[in-house]
């Protein structure tokens, strides 16, 4: 997956773009010569794939057959005259770290913005384009190249759009849309996992109204941090928010959609923005994902008759409206500052890979031989393929961890689907008064359950390309993030 010929061929093209002469002067190299003052710019560009490509996010491979709403890459550039940074969101299920690194190299070449000052996050729409290979869907070479360059283009456009600005933030809460998705079940009711065992202690998504459900296996995080940027005339430039909800889904058959992330952005851009002025770039709204690997929008303990969506996109729109309304309420409370300190740091930590044993690989190979010539069916066959592919992975991975500082606001970027407890732990221990965590940022290294989550088992722990880092990955990532935050809060003189 991560070292495939497809990915290398794609990145060869993308890296070639990084070494082309810049079409405009390097934007940030001259920042120190400009009058000091806070400036910001935002931009969004279309990254909707052509129809017929894979739509990753399911056990089986599905091909896009209809575009319900366009996909976007959105960028916000902040510049206080001394330091600059960029935050980017992309409507996709995930992005490889190599793909993002290639985009960052183009960004540095064309704008002068260093890679450790750029954070690129996937929104985690399960109805987007083929940016990663998961289960029976594979990434597409041409689309990967397009997305990489488009990320760089968005940052460049956002930098071009910079104008004198002010910034502020506040935190809201929307508890009605988030539910824990892992549940303890009554003894003797646990179904088999891909290896024919029933020793998992929790089950993901057991079904609404399931009489065998005992209780959820963890908490939720309803917090809704909102960052707002406006120009010195009071016209909005961007809104950057963070919400701990996996995705909503409920699209039409084989539809391309940005999920509720796109609906929320449309609502904010329509309802918060001032009437557009021809001499100013439009306002851009960006929603990032918190640590939501074990959080979704399914009320398992509720009534099935009350929670079943009556038609496609109904639930998605309902959730987007809830989150947008709270975002708009929070926006009205924000006090803006004329300038703030900006800083960013990144490190990489080595984490072991939970590779299968030789006998597991041999058994998986025999299962695949029996299924040869047709689409894989059921967990046993799908995870047999995952076992064979995961055996080709290296023994360790270098996983990037990033932290950003915007005044007294701390932002952590993790390239994994993390359990909600990891995000709550980082926020609790952060030296900043306000902190939020963005998952699936700067790469894709699969699920990261807590240590206890591994002990309980369940889908998120099942060894595959979607979950392969060591059992102690969560505390290691938290420690690295907190170390970066502490360094940003009290930088060495």
Main features:
493 residues, alpha/beta, 8-stranded mixed β-sheet, 21 strands
Verbal overview:
The protein has 493 residues and is an alpha/beta fold. It folds into two domains: 5-177 and 218-343 and 408-444, no CATH class; 356-390, no CATH class. The protein contains eleven helices and 21 strands. It has helices at 5-18, 97-111, 141-160, 259-271, 304-307, 314-331, 358-370, 378-390, 420-429, 451-456, 473-489; strands spanning 39-46, 66-67, 72-79, 84-90, 118-122, 163-173, 179-180, 182-185, 202-204, 213-216, 223-231, 236-243, 255-256, 284-289, 295-296, 342-352, 396-406, 409-413, 417-418, 434-438, 447-448. The strands form six sheets. An eight-stranded mixed β-sheet has the order 5-4-3-1-6-11-12-14, with helices on both faces. A four-stranded mixed β-sheet has the order 16-17-18-20, covered by helices on one side. Strands 9-8-10 form a three-stranded antiparallel β-sheet, with no helix packed on it. Helix 2 (97-111) packs parallel to helix 3 and helix 4 (259-271) crosses helix 6 (314-331). The longest helix is centred in the N-terminal third of the chain and has 20 residues, at 141-160. It is globular, with a radius of gyration of 22 Å. Mean pLDDT is 93; it is low at 21-25.
